[in-house]
Amino acid sequence: MKAKLLEHSKGAELFALIFETGDEVTSGILNFAREHHLSAAHFSGIGAFQKAVLGYFDWEKKEYLRIPIDEQVEVVSLVGDIALEKKEPKLHAHVVVARRDASAQGGHLLEAHVRPTLEVMLEVSPARLQKYFDPASGLALIRI
Asked: What is the CATH number of the domain that holds 85?
């Protein structure tokens, strides 16, 4: 993954994160967040995956059901945010991907490998967002 600062204004920054074939998306974004000490950001992206694992949160089991996608797909929409959980950046991303026949699948992004590219625009805020454990869901949720 390559990154370029596109804009810096009043403490906010806009970065282009460009992923190449074989790059893993979730770890790439998280590594970038750690290296730049991000505490609040949001992002969107388009491109393509050679394979991915989506998740669907099972409310009763309080865990993500893993949905593997083992084929080339277009990333129709990737959206997410970064907030702190126990002083570490935490990624929350959802994605919609399209197959060859234009059918779509979507869900929580757990893992994805790029082919040939993924273009992510990441906007960093000077504010701080914090996640806290929510006993009802079993998840870490942003508390304002």
From this structure: 3.30.1330.80
